[in-house]
Structures are given as C-alpha cells and as structure tokens.
Amino acid sequence: MKLMHSCEEASRLLSRALDETLGLLDRSLLQMHLSLCGHCSEVDRQFKAMRSLGAEVFGDVGEQPAGGDV
C-alpha cells in the first residue's frame, strides 16, 4: 500500500472531494499529504474559499460532501 500521495494524486482527490465523499483511507492519506505539502494545502484553501464564496452568492444548494472538509 502506498502511504503518500504525489501532488498529482492529491490534486485529483481534492477535486473529487468537491463532488463526492472520499473513503476513510483516501481522506487520511490526503490529510497527511496536505500536512506536509504547502502547495497542495494552498490549493485546498483556495477550493474551500471558492466553495464558501459560492455558498454566499448562491446560497446552500445541498449537502456538502464529507470529503470536502479535508
């Protein structure tokens, strides 16, 4: 089993987390990667900011996927 995601894999998981709930293993590995990678952490921060801005502009359009809080 691979314990660390590359930035490319982390990027795919960050994007996927916007649309669906990530499994426990993917969430854990992504969180570990984000704790070690400033670049990917910044991408995650920007995704969260865009999601928040969208909610302000358009209101709550449904349940947020649990993986979105990574």
Automatic annotation (TrEMBL):
InterPro entries: Znf_put. It comes from the Bacteria. Residues 7-40 form the Putative zinc-finger domain. This is Zf-HC2 domain-containing protein.
